[in-house]
Design a protein that fits this description.
The chain has 66 residues and is an alpha+beta fold. It has a three-stranded antiparallel beta sheet with strand order 1-3-2, with helices on one face. It is elongated. The model has no long low-confidence stretch (mean pLDDT 80).
Amino acid sequence: EMEGQGTFFSLLKFLQEIEKNDTAIQVRDVSMLSNPSLNPQEDKNPLQMHLVFETLLKQRAPKENV
């Protein structure tokens, strides 16, 4: 999971980079909330973001004590 702040276009660029790298990471969920400030001209990061990723990589099985 990942949380951050940014613009819609920064999120879009980030997701495009993940897709371009052809990694085994998939985006399962994206949530965005508006983060309004009292002075919109100073607000460079108007969105609160929460992303959930999943991977296709397999985990090693735990070793069993015999």
